[in-house]
């Protein structure tokens, strides 16, 4: 943001940024490892997310947040990973179709995560833990792109769009002419337009649960 390193993979706004912005908390959610992080930023939230974050660390993080005073916590589920551009390239065959087995695995993970959250809720009295579904909203964008104003959903805007992600998207890889036509920025992460649509749906469904 603003030409300064943020400790994040992107220079655009992520879902956490968009959510806190819509709720009027702050403009951008700072990363915990942001070198420009100030003590006062901790009062309104920082992102502890990390690339490839697993299930167990997330569970322990919820308990830690509860110890710090958080009582209403939203936990994002697993997206339809088999429909992400990179996985379509790696395992989707010649046609680069969605990988059914991977999507089934994501659904299974979400089922187990839901059960874990329900169990954790019993131990964390006074807590409101909510599993935020991103599997179905993102899959809807992929299956019905024109309904949401997208033209390309099977590859990203960066480079070839087939496999590039994170550091492989750089000043040498090139980008598409109009990223608003693309659901994905790289082969894994949506564009800011895609994120905005997802966040709008999330807020409509969950904001009352987590703010009242």
TrEMBL record:
In terms of Gene3D superfamilies, this protein maps to: SGNH hydrolase
Q: Which InterPro entries match?
A: GDSL, GDSL_lipolytic_enzyme, SGNH_hydro_sf
List the SUPFAM superfamilies. Answer: SGNH hydrolase
GO MF annotations in UniProt = hydrolase activity, acting on ester bonds
PANTHER family with a match to the protein in the record: GDSL ESTERASE/LIPASE EXL3 (PTHR45642), GDSL-LIKE LIPASE_ACYLHYDROLASE FAMILY PROTEIN, EXPRESSED (PTHR45642:SF95)
- Similarity annotation: Belongs to the 'GDSL' lipolytic enzyme family.
Protein name, as recorded: Zinc finger protein
* Gene source species: Solanum tuberosum (Potato)
């Amino acid at each position: 943001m603003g030409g300064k390193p943020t400790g994040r993979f992107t220079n655009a706004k992520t879902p956490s940024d968009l959510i806190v912005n819509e709720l009027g908390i702050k403009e951008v959610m700072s990363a915990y490892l942001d070198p420009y992080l100030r003590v006062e930023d901790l009062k309104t939230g920082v992102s502890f997310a990390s690339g490839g974050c697993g299930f167990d660390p997330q569970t322990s993080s919820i308990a830690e947040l509860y110890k710090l005073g958080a009582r209403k916590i939203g936990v994002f589920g697993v997206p339809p990973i088999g429909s992400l551009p990179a996985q379509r390239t790696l395992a989707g065959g010649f046609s680069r179709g969605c990988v059914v087995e991977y999507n089934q695995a994501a659904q299974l993970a979400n089922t187990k995560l839901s059960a874990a959250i329900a169990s954790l809720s019993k131990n964390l009295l006074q807590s409101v833990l909510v599993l935020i579904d991103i599997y179905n909203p993102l899959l809807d964008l992929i299956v019905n792109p024109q309904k949401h104003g997208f033209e390309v959903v099977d590859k990203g805007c960066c480079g070839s769009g087939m496999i590039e992600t994170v550091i492989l998207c750089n000043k040498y890889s090139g980008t598409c002419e109009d990223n608003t036509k693309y659901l994905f920025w790289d082969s894994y992460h949506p564009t800011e337009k895609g994120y905005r649509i997802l966040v709008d749906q999330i807020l409509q469904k969950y904001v009352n649960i987590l703010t009242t």
